[in-house]
């Protein structure tokens, strides 16, 4: 399978020579350079979904910002293309090379630089794993302001580069608000030290914002300072079974009203997602009966009695009004974890299918499930869904209701032209028609870049190209991705 159809190597980029490798070894030592070792390079060349695969012969593992700077200066002078790589959990093929680009891995830059336990500001290297940071903060009574299923592998630098949203954006907001400062190495090696720890600073353009969500196209994030909230003493998780997406919306509006300041997550999935999870995971049923829709509600507060009372009142109302057909409340930490394990397990379960078309879209909440139903009807009409030998196995939906973010996944027996052409650009047209975004949180990478025009105007795309050229005139950073190439 051609993993990158339609792409051609840009011959302006230099091919790596032994002399280049000697330079990198002199800078990083033997252990900081992985060269021409197929086995060791495999992980750097292959994305999390095993969908995209590059052919890089060289991965570099610097330990300091100065080393990153020296690498970038050398690559810029020599016109060597570079792909910054964090935990390699990205879902749009952005973190792996297409051809022979050098992989610049941040995995050896994993020191915590400092923590202020009055303001809750944490400063850390970009290669720190999200879960490691969260556990470290946990001992101090704090937590990271974002959480996602990939927390055990993704880096905070990768989170910033993708502007990851995750499971608690509803409560703690986006990284555009919580990141206070960044240290970034620009493509020519310049170190932009903007490691501010201030909440307020109106002295000019807020440059760090440009790098949040820039997917490694204009600089390498090497350090971050981020505002972290107090870890809540009382956490409750409830699972609801519902009959319709309309009821999901009612449950959501009520949760905002009734649970208000203690609401920390509101996630949904459909029965198809649950079936997919059960197919691949060993799990005990959380509910006796099955329902077309499920909602996970989490509350986090400082007073358990108060939170229990609020949640119980909410659940009672949902059952009395027949918004929810069933409800369970986790009784201890183990049950909390197993309810979250269902929600966080869909990505991995889908990854075990022969093929999966992943979409991550945002739109007004009332439209979310219409989109799923429309896609099912469209694929059935197109002849690829609904028969025993159909290419498509199932259309699975889950997502962050509170953020208007739907994860639409089409599991298939194979990637084939007919199915791909039925989905794209049909889905993007649907999203654009409803004023949505074709990528709510996973980014563009190599999977969505050619479709950017469905979410951004020509004026905006031109401005993005101008910014790219300003920072990276040689185009060496993460080429072929992010911006449309055609
Ligand atoms: P990578 O995958 O290594 O890289 C992603 C992009 O960022 C690439 O373009 C890369 O070049 C660039 N990059 C990485 N590090 C740097 C750096 N230091 N400087 C400059 N550029 C860099 N995303 C969400 O938003 N919400 C979710 O809930 C969510 N859940 C997920 C669950 C699972 C199980 C998985 C596998 C993925 C999930 N993701 C989610 C997708 C993914 O975006 C995040 O996992 C994460 O933010 C990527 O971080 P990473 O360190 O793995 O980055
Ligand atoms: C999620 O919310 O689970 C993630 O964004 C990953 C996915 O979409 O599969
Ligand atoms: Zn998500």
TrEMBL record:
Keywords: FAD, Flavoprotein, Oxidoreductase. The keyword Flavoprotein applies. Residues 52-231 form the FAD-binding PCMH-type domain. Its cofactor is FAD. The keyword Oxidoreductase applies. Gene3D superfamilies: 3.30.465.10, 3.30.70.2190, 3.30.70.2740, Uridine Diphospho-n-acetylenolpyruvylglucosamine Reductase, domain 2 (3.30.43.10), Vanillyl-alcohol Oxidase, Chain A, domain 4 (1.10.45.10). Belongs to the FAD-binding oxidoreductase/transferase type 4 family. This is FAD-binding PCMH-type domain-containing protein. The lineage of its organism: Eukaryota, Fungi, Fungi incertae sedis, Mucoromycota, Mucoromycotina.
